[in-house]
Hints:
- By secondary structure, the chain is α+β, with helices and mostly antiparallel strands.
- It folds into two domains: 4-132, Creatine Amidinohydrolase, Chain A, domain 1 (3-Layer(aba) Sandwich), CATH 3.40.350.10; 137-392, Creatine Amidinohydrolase (Alpha-Beta Complex).
- The chain has helices spanning 4-21, 31-38, 62-68, 80-89, 106-115, 125-132, 137-160, 167-180, 268-286, 294-307; strands at 25-28, 44-49, 55-58, 74-76, 95-99, 119-123, 201-204, 241-246, 249-250, 253-254, 257-262, 324-328, 335-340, 352-355, 358-361, 365-368, 371-376, 379-382, 391-392.
- The strands form six sheets. Strands 4-3-2-1-5-6 form a six-stranded mixed beta sheet, sandwiched between helices.
- Helix 7 runs antiparallel to helix 8 (167-180).
- The chain is elongated and about 70 Å long.
Amino acid sequence: MVDNIAAKKRIRQLKDKLQQSGIDAALLFQARDIFYYANTSQPSALLIPADSPPTLFVRRALDFVRNETTISDIVDGGSLVLIKNRLYDYGIKKGTLGIEKDVISAGLYEKILESFTSFEFSDISSEILKQRMIKDEHEIELIEHACTIFEQEHRTVLEYLRPGVTELEISAEILRTVRRNGSDEVVFRRNLGTPFPLSGVLVSGANTDKISGLAMTVTGVGTGPALPWGSSDRKIEKGDMVIFDTGPNYSGYQADCARTYSVGKPNFELKEKFKLLSELYFYIIDGIRPGQITGDIFKRAGDMARKMRMDQFFQGHGNQRGTYIGHGVGLEIDEMPYIFLNDRETLVENMVFTIEPKFMIPGWGAVVLEDTMLLTDKGCRILTPVEQKLFVV
Protein backbone atom coordinates (compact mmCIF):
# COMPACT_ATOMS: atom_id res chain seq x y z
CA MET A 1 0.00 0.00 0.00
CA VAL A 2 1.43 3.35 -1.06
CA ASP A 3 0.71 6.02 1.56
CA ASN A 4 -0.56 9.48 0.67
CA ILE A 5 2.78 11.15 1.36
CA ALA A 6 4.67 8.83 -1.03
CA ALA A 7 1.96 9.12 -3.70
CA LYS A 8 1.93 12.92 -3.54
CA LYS A 9 5.73 12.98 -3.80
CA ARG A 10 5.64 10.79 -6.92
CA ILE A 11 3.00 12.97 -8.55
CA ARG A 12 4.91 16.14 -7.62
CA GLN A 13 8.05 14.75 -9.24
CA LEU A 14 6.15 13.96 -12.45
CA LYS A 15 4.56 17.42 -12.45
CA ASP A 16 8.02 18.97 -12.19
CA LYS A 17 9.12 16.98 -15.26
CA LEU A 18 6.01 18.06 -17.17
CA GLN A 19 6.67 21.70 -16.40
CA GLN A 20 10.34 21.41 -17.38
CA SER A 21 9.35 19.84 -20.71
CA GLY A 22 6.53 22.25 -21.52
CA ILE A 23 3.88 19.52 -21.29
CA ASP A 24 0.48 20.66 -20.04
CA ALA A 25 -0.73 17.31 -18.67
CA ALA A 26 0.06 13.60 -18.54
CA LEU A 27 -2.63 11.12 -19.55
CA LEU A 28 -1.82 7.60 -18.39
CA PHE A 29 -3.52 4.33 -19.33
CA GLN A 30 -0.98 1.60 -18.48
CA ALA A 31 -1.97 -0.26 -15.29
CA ARG A 32 1.53 -0.45 -13.77
CA ASP A 33 2.07 3.29 -14.22
CA ILE A 34 -1.34 4.10 -12.74
CA PHE A 35 -0.63 1.81 -9.79
CA TYR A 36 2.65 3.66 -9.18
CA TYR A 37 0.94 7.05 -8.90
CA ALA A 38 -2.57 6.12 -7.72
CA ASN A 39 -2.27 2.79 -5.85
CA THR A 40 -4.93 1.01 -7.89
CA SER A 41 -4.81 -1.44 -10.78
CA GLN A 42 -8.48 -1.22 -11.63
CA PRO A 43 -9.42 -0.19 -15.22
CA SER A 44 -8.77 3.52 -15.17
CA ALA A 45 -7.15 6.51 -16.84
CA LEU A 46 -5.10 8.96 -14.79
CA LEU A 47 -4.92 12.64 -15.74
CA ILE A 48 -2.08 14.60 -14.12
CA PRO A 49 -2.06 18.26 -15.17
CA ALA A 50 1.21 20.11 -14.66
CA ASP A 51 -0.44 22.84 -12.55
CA SER A 52 -3.67 21.25 -11.22
CA PRO A 53 -4.71 18.28 -9.06
CA PRO A 54 -4.80 14.80 -10.65
CA THR A 55 -8.04 13.07 -11.59
CA LEU A 56 -8.67 9.33 -11.80
CA PHE A 57 -11.26 8.23 -14.38
CA VAL A 58 -12.60 4.80 -13.42
CA ARG A 59 -14.13 2.49 -16.01
CA ARG A 60 -15.06 -0.36 -13.64
CA ALA A 61 -14.87 -1.47 -9.98
CA LEU A 62 -15.45 2.00 -8.52
CA ASP A 63 -15.93 0.62 -5.00
CA PHE A 64 -12.52 -1.05 -5.13
CA VAL A 65 -10.92 2.16 -6.32
CA ARG A 66 -12.45 4.26 -3.56
CA ASN A 67 -10.97 1.91 -0.96
CA GLU A 68 -7.54 1.73 -2.62
CA THR A 69 -6.51 4.91 -4.33
CA THR A 70 -4.60 7.86 -2.95
CA ILE A 71 -6.24 10.15 -5.55
CA SER A 72 -9.00 12.28 -4.05
CA ASP A 73 -10.63 13.41 -7.33
CA ILE A 74 -12.36 10.30 -8.75
CA VAL A 75 -14.71 10.28 -11.75
CA ASP A 76 -17.08 7.38 -12.42
CA GLY A 77 -16.39 6.73 -16.10
CA GLY A 78 -13.35 6.71 -18.32
CA SER A 79 -14.43 8.14 -21.66
CA LEU A 80 -12.15 10.50 -23.53
CA VAL A 81 -14.98 13.06 -23.51
CA LEU A 82 -14.96 13.13 -19.70
CA ILE A 83 -11.19 13.54 -19.71
CA LYS A 84 -11.30 16.37 -22.25
CA ASN A 85 -14.01 18.15 -20.26
CA ARG A 86 -11.88 18.00 -17.12
CA LEU A 87 -8.97 19.51 -19.03
CA TYR A 88 -11.28 22.29 -20.19
CA ASP A 89 -12.39 22.81 -16.57
CA TYR A 90 -8.75 23.54 -15.76
CA GLY A 91 -8.51 25.96 -18.67
CA ILE A 92 -6.36 23.59 -20.75
CA LYS A 93 -7.98 23.70 -24.19
CA LYS A 94 -4.84 23.27 -26.26
CA GLY A 95 -1.19 22.48 -25.78
CA THR A 96 0.75 19.25 -25.29
CA LEU A 97 -0.36 16.02 -23.65
CA GLY A 98 2.14 13.43 -22.45
CA ILE A 99 1.15 9.83 -23.16
CA GLU A 100 2.74 6.37 -22.92
CA LYS A 101 3.39 5.72 -26.59
CA ASP A 102 5.37 2.55 -25.88
CA VAL A 103 2.34 0.67 -24.52
CA ILE A 104 -0.94 2.17 -25.72
CA SER A 105 -2.56 0.43 -28.68
CA ALA A 106 -2.76 1.94 -32.14
CA GLY A 107 -6.55 1.92 -31.85
CA LEU A 108 -6.51 3.91 -28.60
CA TYR A 109 -3.95 6.33 -30.03
CA GLU A 110 -6.20 7.02 -33.02
CA LYS A 111 -9.13 7.71 -30.70
CA ILE A 112 -6.99 10.10 -28.65
CA LEU A 113 -5.98 11.96 -31.83
CA GLU A 114 -9.64 12.23 -32.85
CA SER A 115 -10.76 13.46 -29.42
CA PHE A 116 -7.97 15.95 -28.67
CA THR A 117 -7.62 17.72 -32.02
CA SER A 118 -6.24 20.93 -30.50
CA PHE A 119 -3.39 19.13 -28.73
CA GLU A 120 0.02 17.82 -29.66
CA PHE A 121 1.37 14.66 -28.06
CA SER A 122 4.67 13.81 -26.43
CA ASP A 123 5.90 10.38 -25.35
CA ILE A 124 6.58 10.47 -21.59
CA SER A 125 7.14 6.73 -21.08
CA SER A 126 10.87 7.22 -20.60
CA GLU A 127 10.39 9.91 -17.95
CA ILE A 128 7.96 7.71 -16.01
CA LEU A 129 10.30 4.72 -16.16
CA LYS A 130 13.25 6.86 -15.08
CA GLN A 131 11.27 7.99 -12.06
CA ARG A 132 10.23 4.42 -11.27
CA MET A 133 13.78 3.04 -11.43
CA ILE A 134 14.79 4.77 -8.15
CA LYS A 135 13.01 2.87 -5.40
CA ASP A 136 11.77 4.13 -2.05
CA GLU A 137 12.09 2.18 1.20
CA HIS A 138 8.69 0.50 0.87
CA GLU A 139 9.39 -0.66 -2.68
CA ILE A 140 12.75 -2.12 -1.62
CA GLU A 141 11.06 -4.05 1.19
CA LEU A 142 8.55 -5.58 -1.23
CA ILE A 143 11.25 -6.58 -3.73
CA GLU A 144 13.33 -8.09 -0.94
CA HIS A 145 10.31 -10.10 0.16
CA ALA A 146 9.85 -11.34 -3.41
CA CYS A 147 13.46 -12.56 -3.25
CA THR A 148 12.59 -14.70 -0.22
CA ILE A 149 9.97 -16.44 -2.37
CA PHE A 150 12.79 -17.42 -4.72
CA GLU A 151 14.48 -19.10 -1.76
CA GLN A 152 11.38 -21.29 -1.32
CA GLU A 153 11.30 -22.08 -5.05
CA HIS A 154 14.98 -23.05 -4.90
CA ARG A 155 14.26 -25.47 -2.04
CA THR A 156 11.49 -27.00 -4.14
CA VAL A 157 13.93 -27.55 -7.01
CA LEU A 158 16.34 -29.30 -4.64
CA GLU A 159 13.52 -31.51 -3.37
CA TYR A 160 12.03 -32.59 -6.71
CA LEU A 161 14.98 -32.52 -9.11
CA ARG A 162 15.65 -36.22 -9.78
CA PRO A 163 16.28 -38.48 -12.81
CA GLY A 164 13.03 -39.56 -14.45
CA VAL A 165 11.04 -36.47 -13.46
CA THR A 166 10.07 -34.10 -16.28
CA GLU A 167 10.80 -30.39 -16.40
CA LEU A 168 7.04 -29.76 -16.39
CA GLU A 169 6.48 -31.85 -13.25
CA ILE A 170 9.09 -29.85 -11.35
CA SER A 171 7.65 -26.65 -12.76
CA ALA A 172 4.23 -27.62 -11.38
CA GLU A 173 5.67 -28.05 -7.89
CA ILE A 174 7.43 -24.69 -8.19
CA LEU A 175 4.14 -23.04 -9.12
CA ARG A 176 2.51 -24.54 -6.03
CA THR A 177 5.35 -23.18 -3.90
CA VAL A 178 5.16 -19.72 -5.43
CA ARG A 179 1.46 -19.34 -4.75
CA ARG A 180 1.66 -20.81 -1.24
CA ASN A 181 4.32 -18.25 -0.38
CA GLY A 182 2.21 -15.29 -1.43
CA SER A 183 3.41 -14.47 -4.92
CA ASP A 184 0.93 -12.68 -7.14
CA GLU A 185 -0.34 -14.74 -10.08
CA VAL A 186 1.16 -12.56 -12.80
CA VAL A 187 4.69 -11.69 -13.84
CA PHE A 188 4.32 -8.11 -15.07
CA ARG A 189 6.21 -7.31 -18.24
CA ARG A 190 6.04 -4.21 -20.42
CA ASN A 191 7.46 -5.87 -23.54
CA LEU A 192 5.05 -7.01 -26.24
CA GLY A 193 4.79 -10.72 -27.05
CA THR A 194 7.08 -12.03 -24.30
CA PRO A 195 4.98 -13.54 -21.50
CA PHE A 196 7.01 -14.99 -18.65
CA PRO A 197 5.61 -17.96 -16.68
CA LEU A 198 5.03 -17.47 -12.95
CA SER A 199 6.71 -20.83 -12.35
CA GLY A 200 9.80 -19.50 -14.08
CA VAL A 201 11.90 -21.27 -16.68
CA LEU A 202 13.34 -24.62 -15.60
CA VAL A 203 15.36 -26.28 -18.36
CA SER A 204 17.67 -29.26 -18.42
CA GLY A 205 20.32 -31.05 -20.43
CA ALA A 206 20.25 -30.26 -24.14
CA ASN A 207 17.55 -27.62 -23.56
CA THR A 208 19.85 -25.33 -21.58
CA ASP A 209 21.62 -23.83 -24.60
CA LYS A 210 18.43 -23.25 -26.62
CA ILE A 211 17.56 -19.59 -27.31
CA SER A 212 13.98 -18.71 -28.23
CA GLY A 213 11.87 -15.56 -28.25
CA LEU A 214 12.93 -11.95 -27.84
CA ALA A 215 13.68 -10.91 -24.28
CA MET A 216 15.42 -13.92 -22.71
CA THR A 217 18.57 -15.93 -23.36
CA VAL A 218 18.24 -19.24 -21.49
CA THR A 219 14.73 -20.09 -22.62
CA GLY A 220 14.27 -23.82 -23.04
CA VAL A 221 11.82 -25.02 -25.67
CA GLY A 222 8.45 -24.98 -23.90
CA THR A 223 5.63 -27.27 -24.95
CA GLY A 224 5.40 -26.21 -28.60
CA PRO A 225 5.37 -23.30 -31.06
CA ALA A 226 2.45 -21.59 -29.32
CA LEU A 227 4.82 -20.78 -26.42
CA PRO A 228 8.29 -22.02 -27.39
CA TRP A 229 10.12 -21.25 -24.15
CA GLY A 230 9.97 -22.55 -20.63
CA SER A 231 9.76 -26.08 -19.28
CA SER A 232 9.05 -29.05 -21.53
CA ASP A 233 8.16 -32.73 -21.11
CA ARG A 234 11.84 -33.71 -21.26
CA LYS A 235 12.78 -36.16 -18.50
CA ILE A 236 15.67 -35.27 -16.25
CA GLU A 237 18.66 -37.58 -16.66
CA LYS A 238 21.57 -38.35 -14.35
CA GLY A 239 24.47 -36.04 -15.17
CA ASP A 240 22.21 -33.23 -16.45
CA MET A 241 22.92 -29.60 -15.80
CA VAL A 242 19.72 -27.72 -14.96
CA ILE A 243 18.97 -24.00 -14.95
CA PHE A 244 16.13 -22.38 -13.03
CA ASP A 245 15.32 -18.72 -13.78
CA THR A 246 12.29 -17.13 -12.14
CA GLY A 247 10.54 -13.84 -11.37
CA PRO A 248 8.41 -14.02 -8.20
CA ASN A 249 6.09 -11.08 -7.66
CA TYR A 250 5.02 -9.85 -4.21
CA SER A 251 2.37 -7.14 -3.84
CA GLY A 252 3.06 -5.99 -7.39
CA TYR A 253 6.87 -5.91 -7.15
CA GLN A 254 9.13 -8.29 -9.03
CA ALA A 255 12.39 -10.03 -8.28
CA ASP A 256 14.45 -11.97 -10.84
CA CYS A 257 16.88 -14.73 -9.83
CA ALA A 258 18.52 -17.82 -11.36
CA ARG A 259 20.71 -20.73 -10.29
CA THR A 260 22.47 -23.68 -11.93
CA TYR A 261 22.16 -27.29 -10.68
CA SER A 262 23.86 -30.60 -11.40
CA VAL A 263 21.94 -33.88 -11.22
CA GLY A 264 24.56 -36.09 -9.65
CA LYS A 265 28.24 -35.33 -9.32
CA PRO A 266 29.23 -32.61 -11.84
CA ASN A 267 31.91 -33.46 -14.36
CA PHE A 268 35.17 -31.53 -14.60
CA GLU A 269 33.97 -29.28 -17.44
CA LEU A 270 30.82 -28.20 -15.60
CA LYS A 271 32.78 -27.41 -12.46
CA GLU A 272 35.35 -25.41 -14.40
CA LYS A 273 32.78 -23.46 -16.41
CA PHE A 274 30.84 -22.60 -13.28
CA LYS A 275 34.01 -21.56 -11.49
CA LEU A 276 34.77 -19.11 -14.30
CA LEU A 277 31.18 -17.85 -14.22
CA SER A 278 31.35 -17.28 -10.46
CA GLU A 279 34.58 -15.32 -10.84
CA LEU A 280 32.99 -13.19 -13.55
CA TYR A 281 29.85 -12.62 -11.47
CA PHE A 282 31.72 -11.31 -8.42
CA TYR A 283 34.11 -9.33 -10.61
CA ILE A 284 31.10 -7.50 -12.08
CA ILE A 285 29.23 -6.72 -8.86
CA ASP A 286 32.34 -5.86 -6.85
CA GLY A 287 33.09 -3.12 -9.38
CA ILE A 288 29.65 -1.48 -9.47
CA ARG A 289 29.29 1.90 -7.77
CA PRO A 290 26.94 4.90 -8.04
CA GLY A 291 27.96 7.22 -10.86
CA GLN A 292 28.90 4.47 -13.29
CA ILE A 293 27.42 4.28 -16.80
CA THR A 294 25.39 1.16 -17.54
CA GLY A 295 27.03 0.43 -20.90
CA ASP A 296 30.48 0.60 -19.31
CA ILE A 297 29.52 -2.17 -16.89
CA PHE A 298 28.61 -4.44 -19.79
CA LYS A 299 31.87 -3.63 -21.58
CA ARG A 300 33.86 -4.37 -18.42
CA ALA A 301 32.11 -7.74 -18.09
CA GLY A 302 32.75 -8.54 -21.75
CA ASP A 303 36.44 -7.67 -21.38
CA MET A 304 36.77 -10.12 -18.50
CA ALA A 305 34.95 -12.83 -20.44
CA ARG A 306 37.44 -12.23 -23.24
CA LYS A 307 40.38 -12.65 -20.85
CA MET A 308 38.82 -15.93 -19.74
CA ARG A 309 38.58 -16.94 -23.43
CA MET A 310 34.84 -17.36 -22.95
CA ASP A 311 33.68 -14.30 -24.90
CA GLN A 312 32.15 -16.30 -27.77
CA PHE A 313 29.83 -17.98 -25.22
CA PHE A 314 29.18 -14.89 -23.06
CA GLN A 315 25.44 -14.06 -22.88
CA GLY A 316 24.53 -16.50 -25.62
CA HIS A 317 26.17 -17.86 -28.73
CA GLY A 318 26.44 -17.21 -32.45
CA ASN A 319 24.19 -14.44 -33.75
CA GLN A 320 21.92 -14.78 -30.70
CA ARG A 321 24.32 -13.39 -28.11
CA GLY A 322 22.67 -10.89 -25.82
CA THR A 323 24.12 -7.40 -25.41
CA TYR A 324 23.10 -7.09 -21.76
CA ILE A 325 24.37 -8.09 -18.33
CA GLY A 326 21.38 -7.00 -16.24
CA HIS A 327 18.23 -4.92 -15.99
CA GLY A 328 16.08 -3.10 -13.49
CA VAL A 329 13.24 -4.80 -11.63
CA GLY A 330 10.28 -3.31 -9.83
CA LEU A 331 6.67 -3.01 -10.93
CA GLU A 332 7.74 -4.97 -14.02
CA ILE A 333 10.38 -7.65 -14.44
CA ASP A 334 12.28 -5.75 -17.14
CA GLU A 335 12.56 -2.04 -16.51
CA MET A 336 15.17 0.72 -16.26
CA PRO A 337 18.07 0.80 -15.70
CA TYR A 338 19.01 -1.42 -18.63
CA ILE A 339 22.60 -2.58 -18.23
CA PHE A 340 23.07 -2.99 -21.97
CA LEU A 341 26.03 -2.47 -24.27
CA ASN A 342 24.91 0.88 -25.71
CA ASP A 343 22.89 2.16 -22.76
CA ARG A 344 24.15 5.38 -21.13
CA GLU A 345 22.16 5.61 -17.91
CA THR A 346 24.04 6.77 -14.80
CA LEU A 347 23.62 4.49 -11.78
CA VAL A 348 22.42 6.11 -8.56
CA GLU A 349 21.62 4.87 -5.07
CA ASN A 350 18.37 2.94 -4.51
CA MET A 351 18.23 1.52 -7.99
CA VAL A 352 17.32 -2.17 -7.90
CA PHE A 353 18.54 -4.36 -10.75
CA THR A 354 19.76 -7.80 -11.68
CA ILE A 355 23.20 -8.95 -12.67
CA GLU A 356 22.99 -12.16 -14.74
CA PRO A 357 26.15 -13.42 -16.45
CA LYS A 358 25.93 -16.71 -18.34
CA PHE A 359 28.02 -18.90 -20.57
CA MET A 360 26.10 -20.80 -23.25
CA ILE A 361 27.95 -23.38 -25.33
CA PRO A 362 26.13 -25.01 -28.28
CA GLY A 363 25.93 -28.78 -27.90
CA TRP A 364 27.12 -28.63 -24.30
CA GLY A 365 24.75 -26.47 -22.25
CA ALA A 366 24.84 -23.39 -20.07
CA VAL A 367 25.70 -22.06 -16.63
CA VAL A 368 23.92 -19.06 -15.12
CA LEU A 369 23.96 -16.90 -12.00
CA GLU A 370 21.40 -14.15 -11.48
CA ASP A 371 20.55 -12.08 -8.44
CA THR A 372 18.43 -9.08 -7.64
CA MET A 373 20.45 -6.36 -5.92
CA LEU A 374 20.13 -2.90 -4.40
CA LEU A 375 22.67 -0.19 -5.19
CA THR A 376 23.89 1.59 -2.06
CA ASP A 377 26.53 4.27 -1.58
CA LYS A 378 29.06 1.46 -1.00
CA GLY A 379 28.06 -0.72 -3.95
CA CYS A 380 25.71 -3.66 -4.52
CA ARG A 381 23.76 -5.35 -1.73
CA ILE A 382 22.51 -8.72 -2.94
CA LEU A 383 18.85 -9.22 -1.98
CA THR A 384 18.65 -12.87 -3.04
CA PRO A 385 19.00 -15.09 0.07
CA VAL A 386 20.49 -18.10 -1.78
CA GLU A 387 24.20 -18.88 -2.02
CA GLN A 388 25.90 -18.25 -5.36
CA LYS A 389 27.16 -21.77 -6.04
CA LEU A 390 26.62 -24.80 -8.25
CA PHE A 391 24.01 -26.92 -6.46
CA VAL A 392 24.38 -30.70 -6.65
CA VAL A 393 21.33 -32.95 -6.14
